[in-house]
Amino acid sequence: MQEQVGILDERSPQVSESEISNLETDNLVIQFQFATGSIIGRNHVLVGKNNQDAYRVVMREQFIVAIVCDGCSAGRHSEVGAKIGVRMISEEIANLLEGGLSISEPEFWHRLKHNLLQKLKDFVAIASGGAELSKSVTMEFVNDYLLFTIVVAIVTPRETVTFSIGDGAIAVNGKFTEIPPYADNAPPYLAYGLYNPEAINFEIRDRLPTSKLESLLIATDGIIDLAVVEPVEQFWKESRYFKNPDAIRRKLAMLNREEVKPDWHKQELTKRTGILSDDTSLVVIRKQLAFSD
Length: 293
What we know:
There is one protein chain. This protein is of the alpha+beta class and about 290 residues long. The protein contains ten helices and 13 strands. Strands 1-3-4-5-6-9 form a six-stranded antiparallel sheet, covered by helices on one side. Strands 2-13-10-7-8 form a five-stranded antiparallel sheet. The radius of gyration is 20 Å and the shape is flat.
């Protein structure tokens, strides 16, 4: 199993065409490669906040689960929820898939939602030391720690699905789609389901046969600023992002670098600020033979 949390520790497997032809076609580890990266947004740096994004990739022979979470900016410590969320959600999806459920079955989605809400409930109980908390105290804890958006991609040998709770962005086979912010910038965070399970639902964004999948990107909403000035397709088209485990983070860091340059004609200094105002995290997956070096 290859697993990724935070910073890519291992490069995605590089496999030749002849090697792929001699191996099982259902082995997703052989067929696909992934790359990841994250950077703190300029606005968070200015006010002394942490990077409130998190991401994780779980790659196994029979499935790939990729997830990005964005902590609510109004939460005092929402980066905690985002980091817990990427692990909790990816592991629960993996458990359901390994248990034989298919993403094409309604039962998969029912069980996923039920189990995740139960895990959040258990986490709140553990954090409170087992004490019975009042509704107001529980809400305060949830608002401080457990509000985060979710964008997920699941790749199985037969089918690929992307879904979300909250905003962000997805690109499938080159088509980039922004998941727009919700009214009053108040997405239906997963943890709201602790009070009313019917208030939250997974929004399916894409379904396609995995045989048709060439590239896939999921990202937090910070990537919208990037898409204005840089081609997003570079992340799945350029092999350097898959060969160097730190390449995406370096690219994001370069875009967020402040520069002061002299304007000799005006005889003054000009300052260029970073373009990524919000935390930006992305995971990109591509079929190895779909792109040449």
